[in-house]
Amino acid sequence: MIAIICGAAIGASGRYFLSGWISSSARANFPWGTLAVNLLGCLVIGLLWGMGEKADWSPLIRSFLFIGILGSFTTFSSFGLETAHLLMADMPGSALIYVATSNLGGFAMVWAGITAGSAGS
Q1: What is the pLDDT of residues 38-88, one digit of tens each?
Q2: Where do the structural domains in the chain lie, given as residue ranges?
Q3: What is the C-alpha to C-alpha distance for residues 20 and 38, in angstroms, rounded to an integer?
Q4: Could you give the CA distance from residue 69 to residue 77 in angstroms, rounded to a whole number?
Q5: Contact by Cβ (8 Å): 8, 72
Q6: Which of 4, 23, 28, 120 is the most exposed place for a label (fewest CB within 10 A)?
Q7: 72 vs 2, 47, 57, 76, CA distance in Å?
Q8: How far is CA 81 from CA 20, 22, 115, in A?
Q9: Which of 13, 120, 117, 7 is nearest to 63 (CA)?
Q10: Which among 57, 49, 66 has a CA at the least distance from the CA of 10?
Q11: Which string of DSSP letters, residue by residue, matches 8-59?
Q12: Rounded distance, CA 95 to CA 115, Å?
């Protein structure tokens, strides 16, 4: 648990500073910071996963990196990795369902939460 907490402090701080820096530099009405963090997180999780498979990293190192750092940097990277695993397991239908449900369902839940949270305002 301590490894995850320490990793989370690194990942969350990195997300805050990188996303903020990119967003303020871009000066646009588009979430460039979040997009950059999500894409970078996907690249890093893929690189680290590939390296970890060859090196046979311990569960402690994996937890620190994947749950702690990357999990707090962006959960989108976990989503990307899980989708890749479904495709590598020759489960394209499951991958498509996962992608569609995560994106459309996630948007619907955000919309429902905004609607419910602003009701009566």
Answers
A1: 999 999 999 999 998 889 899 999 999 999 999 999 989 889 999 999 999
A2: 2-74
A3: 13
A4: 11
A5: yes
A6: 120
A7: 14, 17, 20, 10
A8: 25, 24, 31
A9: 7
A10: 66
A11: HHHHHHHHHHHHHHHHHHH-SSS-HHHHHHHHHHHHHHHHHHHHHHHHT--H
A12: 30
The token pair at 103 is 């994106």
CA 118 to chain centre: 27
| pTM assigned to the model | 0.80
54, two tokens: 């060859």
Q: How far apart are CA 115 and CA 12, in angstroms?
A: 28
69 CB burial (10 A radius; 0-12, 13-18, 19+): buried
Q: Is 117 helix (H, G, I), strand (E, B) or coil?
A: helix
